[in-house]
Amino acid sequence: MRRTMISALAMLALLAIGCGDDDGGGSGGTSGASGTGGTAGTAGDSGTGGGDPGICTGDTTDHPNCVNEECPDITPTTGPRAMKGACCFRASNADRAQAAWDNDELATIEFRVNALQTSSQPNSVGNPLIQASLATTYETDWSNTLVRIEGIPKEGSGPVTVTIGAGRSNCDGTYSFFSDTSAPDFGAGSAPWFVERTDPARWEASVMAGTWDWDSEEKLTIPTANRPEGVRWAPVAKDNGLLGYEQPSQDLNYEFTFDGTDSTDITAEALNCAGGRLLAESMWDASLVQTTFFPIADLETAQVDSLTLTQNFCSFLAVGFMQPELCDEVPRVAPDGCEPTDNTGACKHWVELPVGFCDAEHCYVGDEDHPRANCGGDTGNECCDPGADDDTMPDCNAFLIEAEAVLAGSEITDEPHTDSTEVFPDCTAN
């Protein structure tokens, strides 16, 4: 997988994730190394047990569990839940899992997405300049994507329960999933294309049944039938901690693999970190791929609202930054007589095309020329037309959003957050 440098000021908050489905999935990590206060290498020797975890003053490679002073300045910055190691993790999945396996119990691991970089849509949301203009909500703990995997066996395979969803920082180093009462009323605003959403359960995390198999390269699989049907909404905060926008996602997925054939062959760092922070540059090095679909019909009912922008969400994604037109007011491809490079006046067209097709239940990549195409042949899926100018097939109706993510070990509370009046607390240390 290619290495991506993620600026702390260039993170599009593509909220909500899933794990590998029938076609693949799993999670990557880095190899074990010696740590302060213990010995790393396997999950049983995580380097966090007993003693002061130490302070990172340089590269974390030799001290993967030290308190990392180059991590974002979010409370707590000291104590057992201070950000540690290459990925700024707050809680050791390695210690927690090994304690369970030592007692012949099933293990639970929990993650927070610490950084996210869009690798698709380079002409709109994937443009680094546009990403830099968005709120750095993951750096400030105002927006959180959380993952919990319960029931991991010591060896072999077995059923697991996977919870994925948006959540809240508690400013004490722990996090909580949103519940069926967390989402506040989000009024209709002033734009005619911004549809009011008031369902308090629209941010609730998804709980799915999957399988963990140590003997498979793809350790975690979740069948499509076990995934939530339809669109799930998720909040993204502005850089002042206010609600910036809600985004509609469908069939969210992580492609993530652990090296190792059982619990004794997995490194502590792989359980604690997927990706990391490059100390000298205060940037992120992502190692996992996240994909999701954004249905156009739902994007057309939403708006993006930041300190510098208020725009229809579909227009923001398809037509580009700060464009006044709505998606249905601009042709998808350059009109006849216009060069594709001419995107002004009567020649204006979409700068990014959808490649996905979604129904009321699930989505797939319907552009037969896309590397992730899943249509035609014996797939049972009809291919779709990204440009909406071929009468022999349906129009593609969803954007495939691909991103690269950094996951960090975290502690997620057993009880979800239920109060809709305080969803974005300010946890910055200063």
Structural account:
By secondary structure, this protein is mostly beta strands. It has a domain of 295 residues. It has six helices and 21 strands. The strands form five sheets. Strands 4, 5, 6, 7, 8, 9, 10, 11, 12, 15, 20 and 21 form a twelve-stranded mixed beta sheet that branches. The protein has a three-stranded antiparallel beta sheet with strand order 1-14-13, with no helix packed on it. A two-stranded parallel sheet has the order 2-3. Strand 13 and strand 14 form a beta hairpin. The N terminus is likely disordered.
Primary descriptors:
430 residues; disordered N terminus; mainly beta; single chain; 12-stranded mixed sheet
Low-confidence stretches: 1-51
DSSP summary: helix tally: 6
Rg, Cα atoms, Å: 21 Å
Q: Please summarize the sheet with the most strands.
A: 12 strands, mixed
**Roughly what fraction of the amino acids lie in strands?**
25-35%
Overall pLDDT score: 79
What is the chain-wise order of helices and strands?
Answer: EEEHEHHEEEEEEEHEEEEHEEHEEEE
Distance separating the two termini: 37 Å
Given the helix and strand composition, which structural class is it? mainly beta
The total count of strands amounts to 21
Roughly how much helix do the residues carry, as a percent range?
Answer: under 10%
Apparent shape: globular
